[in-house]
């Protein structure tokens, strides 16, 4: 009834195992480093510089979150991507801003910067100001300078002036 006493000294099998494990570990480190570099390269391609927003800046709000509130349009295709300029009430972080929204807009006041876009005002002469109609005998009337085109749609005449 005895047991084997450990021998002092180095075991060749243990040394081989340790060397093999170190070699495998080095290969794994190299492979992980290479994979991280590839992921970083492709991820950074999609990233863009983030605009810095300040209080009182005007921004356009994305209609992505307003799907159920915009019912005046029949098709998604014809709906605006961004709607009206809103003022920034507070900058929460570089990723979130608080807007001064109308009471009819039923979303949270704090939105991610990916849902807003800086407002760029109209360029002078880009859009013609529509003249106010003259009210004659209780009906609105406009003075026409020139008729450019005429089109009949469903038995109604439509004019391009």
Overview of the molecule:
There is one protein chain. The protein has 161 residues and is α+β, with helices and mostly antiparallel strands. The chain has a domain at 58-118. It is 22% helix and 25% strand. The protein has 1 helix and 9 strands. It has one helix at residues 12-46; strands spanning 58-62, 82-91, 96-99, 110-112, 116-118, 134-136, 139-141, 149-153, 156-160. The chain has a 5-stranded antiparallel beta sheet, with no helix packed on it. The chain has a two-stranded antiparallel sheet with strand order 6-7. A two-stranded antiparallel sheet has the order 8-9. A hairpin with a 2-residue loop joins strand 8 (149-153) and strand 9 (156-160). The longest helix has 35 residues, at 12-46. The protein starts with 11 loop residues before the first helix and ends with a strand. The mean pLDDT is 79.
Largest sheet: 5 strands, antiparallel
Summed over residues and divided by their number, the pLDDT gives a mean of 79
Q: What is the number of strand segments?
A: 9
Given as residue ranges, the uncertain stretches (5+ residues, pLDDT < 50) are none
Give the fraction of residues assigned to helices: 10-25%
Strand residue content: 25-35%
Query: Counting H and I runs of at least 4 residues, what is the number of helices?
Result: 1
Strand order of the largest sheet: 4-3-2-1-5
Apparent shape: elongated
- How far the N terminus sits from the C terminus, by CA atoms, comes to 114 Å
Structural class: alpha+beta
What would you report as the Rg, rounded to the nearest angstrom? 34 Å
